[in-house]
Amino acid sequence: MLNRRNGLNKVARVGSRRSVAPSSLAAIRCYSSQPDPNDVAILGGGITGLATAHYLSQSNPNRKVTIYESSPRLGGWLHTEKVEIDDGHILFEKGPRTLRPAGNGSLTARLVNQLGLEDETIFTMKTAPAATNRYLYYPDHLVRVPQPDRKLGFMANATALANTFTYEPAFQGILGRLALEPFRPARDSSVTDESVGDFFARRIGRRLVDQVMSAVVHGIYAGDIYQLSMKSLFPSLWRLEEESGSLVTGLLQNMVEGAKVPAKELEFMMAMKQPYPFGKEFRKNFRRSNVFTFRNGIQQLVDTLEASLKKSPNVIFQLNQEVTDIKNTEQNVELEAKSSTEGSTSKHNHTHVISTLSPDKTSQAASSMNRGFLKLPVCPTPTVMTVNLYYRTPNLHPSGFGYLIPLGIPIDQNPERALGVTFDTAYAAGTPGDEDFVGPMQDTVSNRGTKVTVMLGGHYWDGWSSHPSNDEGLQMAQSIMERHLGVTEKPAAHSVNLNYNCIPQYTVGFEDRVSKFHDELSLRYSGRLRVAGNWVRGVGVNDCIRSAWDVARDLDTSGLTGLEYIVKPKQWLTVKVKKS
Ligand SMILES: Cc1cc2nc3c(=O)[nH]c(=O)nc-3n(C[C@H](O)[C@H](O)[C@H](O)COP(=O)(O)OP(=O)(O)OC[C@H]3O[C@@H](n4cnc5c(N)ncnc54)[C@H](O)[C@@H]3O)c2cc1C
């Protein structure tokens, strides 16, 4: 075990290797003795914080876990509003609305099982219009994104595809560009990262990026495709170009030889393949579904987590407590928290701290330890306004999941700076017995009308000092509905939500910035402060749960920061997909 003096010597050596300014070294106190993680503070009571608490108590019920949440409610962006209307109610989702079963979804499925939510889950089947019909708005109408519809025969699907690629301006010419992709030169080996937009513009053409792909990026990140990092968001494709010189050639090779997957991911996939005691129906429906949610909306997941954690005597909730300082001391980590109700501050000691806050907020809270080192801008977080609208008239839009608006629509034709519209009546049954869904009803109103969410802002609002008011947001959403879908009806209910700094942007150079953040965190907290959340494994709810699972599982390994998956070199293994 290192004493304090030795610890400092060790830091000085590391510091000189990393060229830390000598005057700053005096400020660093690195206590590298590692107490057992038996008293853990979690910063943030969103899905990542709650799931982390769940996994920590599951692995060691005697461990003390304290969740610090600055607001009066738990759940973070998972926020469902119940609106009484006519003879029943409808649900509005202010943040996320559905989860996907693929990838990290298998971990969420286990969480659903552990929380006893299997019978509360609503599955939208792969055959449902919400799964098969996704639209783009380009240039002045909705275009169905080419995708096989399982309810149609081969000829009908082939004709629909041919028509789209021949007559729709959004997709015209794209097949030709794809055919030429193998002949495009590979990137220069000196390029260490590139935007997703520049990458695909180089390989397939700007048209695909501006008219199609930028819309998808609007839907997931509310971000600008010309700023997000290809290396961080699509590491496999980034690698494929490096190895095969072409995406098309590389993908064809993968089909024959198997695809390359990071060893850690393969390990996770194998763990998720282990037998698990799901209910028979749940397992079957999960496999056949495209997306899922819950009877009481997405918030039911965090409400049930909260209820489950409250049963544990070792889990403590500290609501209205904003953590303002995280100090590494010889014995412990000392937190300072400010009460938002009383304005008073209090100090708390823990063996370890897991921050599920954004890197900016974590840096702010770690300010007394970092003397500016951690104040590296890791990822910007734009603001998104969601406007939920409910109309009494049903079927005011084509059947499907919704539509996204690409960058190719100039601002004078998109003055509201809309990102897209989700058709929320599409992911839960409107009438009992609808075969496109399995599970309970979500809205109980007997004659359900049309429910949509209009998403505004995101990267379009970067640098804005103020944002539209709720009234302006409502007007903007209604004007989108009228211009795009011809809806002039006044909504019977609405909810306008301004989500400040909500979605982290993995912009070009993200990995390098995370790497510096990791080094500083490691140097100053020696593994006692770790991070998890939507900037670590991906921005989706499933990714947050995965990040929580990872950080909880690794807590007993000393010296980690939670960022190892991003910063450590990956070992890529070949996986052959077996046809079953
Ligand atoms: C509009 C919108 C739509 C989305 N749609 C989807 C979707 O359909 N599907 C999907 O999978 N994902 C979706 N996402 C993404 C997903 O919802 C988020 O990435 C995820 O909820 C983030 O959870 P988190 O717990 O990491 O962070 P948060 O939810 O941000 O939780 C962090 C918590 O920390 C608290 N906090 C902040 N500072 C402090 C402090 N100093 N001390 C103590 N507490 C503090 C905050 O109050 C908050 O409760 C969407 C996100 C948004 C905003």
From TrEMBL:
Gene Ontology CC terms: mitochondrial inner membrane
Cofactor: FAD
InterPro entries to which the protein is assigned, alphabetical: Amino_oxidase (IPR002937), FAD/NAD-bd_sf (IPR036188), Protoporphyrinogen_oxidase (IPR004572), Zeta_carotene_desat/Oxidored (IPR050464)
Pfam family, one: Amino_oxidase
GO annotation (BP), single: protoporphyrinogen IX biosynthetic process
UniProt keyword Phosphoprotein present: no
Cofactor info, note text: Binds 1 FAD per subunit.
Catalytic activity from the UniProt record: protoporphyrinogen IX + 3 O2 = protoporphyrin IX + 3 H2O2
Enzyme type, top EC level: oxidoreductase
Subcellular location: Mitochondrion inner membrane
Composition bias, Polar residues: 338-363
Region (Disordered): 334-363
Pathway assigned in UniProt: Porphyrin-containing compound metabolism; protoporphyrin-IX biosynthesis; protoporphyrin-IX from protoporphyrinogen-IX: step 1/1
Keyword tags: FAD, Flavoprotein, Heme biosynthesis, Oxidoreductase, Porphyrin biosynthesis
UniProt domain Amine oxidase: residue ranges: 47-555
SUPFAM superfamilies: FAD-linked reductases, C-terminal domain, FAD/NAD(P)-binding domain
Transmembrane regions listed in the UniProt entry: none
Gene Ontology molecular functions: oxygen-dependent protoporphyrinogen oxidase activity
Entry EC number(s): 1.3.3.4
PANTHER family: PROTOPORPHYRINOGEN OXIDASE
Stated role: Catalyzes the 6-electron oxidation of protoporphyrinogen-IX to form protoporphyrin-IX.
Record-linked NCBIfam families: proto_IX_ox (TIGR00562)
Family from the record: Belongs to the protoporphyrinogen/coproporphyrinogen oxidase family. Protoporphyrinogen oxidase subfamily.
Name used for this protein in its record: Protoporphyrinogen oxidase
Lineage: Eukaryota, Fungi, Dikarya, Ascomycota, Pezizomycotina
